[in-house]
Amino acid sequence: MAKIIAGMGTSHVPGLGAAMDNGKTHEAYWQPVFKGLEPLRAWHRDHVPDVNIIVYNDHATAIALDNYATFTLGVAEQFLPADEGWGRRNVPTVQGHPELAWHLVESLIADEFDLAISGDLDVDHGLTVPLSIAYDQPAEWPTRVIPLAVNVIQYPQPSSLRCYKLGQAIRRAVDSFPDDITVGIWGTGGLSSALAS
Question: In the chain, which stretches have pLDDT less than 70?
Answer without folding.
Answer: 190-197
